[in-house]
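FAQ

Q: What does a record look like?
A: Structure on top, sequence underneath. For example:
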């Protein structure tokens, strides 16, 4: 089973800034733990701060992978382009957020991805990614 985690803008700062909101673990460290916990899953990871690169990666993996776990970060709330990319591919996409976006500012309550997502997981810290992974397991 091939699953990719795609992270959007500023998530490269995880573990380095704002630990009260996003925790103190880097994503690379969390990803290594996740990979070793699920050795049968072919797990890959991509992060970009650039909207078009995120769209390209959704296109590149969206017809051959079994699942996309997408934290589009701030682009979740602004990007018609990423929303359209999610709609346009065959691979199911689970929208993930580390924080509970519904406890935060109203602009974070909107998502251009949610209408075409398989499901949404928010508010469980980095464990949100593992919960999303579970949704793809047999
Ligand atoms: O809770 C999430 O996962 C978010 O997708 C994170 C985004 C935010 O814009 C969304 O509303 C919710 C922000 C990611 C920024 O990540 C940082 C991590 C460490 C330090 C600074 C930013």
């Amino acid at each position: 089973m091939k699953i990719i985690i795609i992270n959007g803008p500023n998530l490269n700062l995880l573990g380095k800034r704002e630990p009260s909101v996003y925790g103190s673990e880097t994503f690379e460290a969390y990803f290594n733990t996740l990979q070793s916990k699920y050795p049968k899953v072919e797990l890959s990871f991509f992060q970009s701060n650039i909207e078009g690169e995120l769209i390209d990666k959704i296109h590149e993996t969206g017809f051959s992978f079994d699942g996309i776990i997408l934290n589009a970060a701030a682009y979740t709330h602004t990007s018609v382009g990423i929303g359209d990319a999610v709609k346009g591919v065959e691979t199911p996409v689970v929208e993930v957020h580390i924080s509970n976006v519904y406890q935060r500012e109203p602009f974070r309550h909107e998502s251009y991805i949610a209408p075409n997502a398989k499901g949404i997981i928010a508010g469980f810290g980095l464990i949100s990614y593992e919960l999303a992974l579970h949704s793809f397991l047999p």
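Q: Is there anything notable about this one?
A: Residues 3 and 43 are 5 Å apart (CA to CA).
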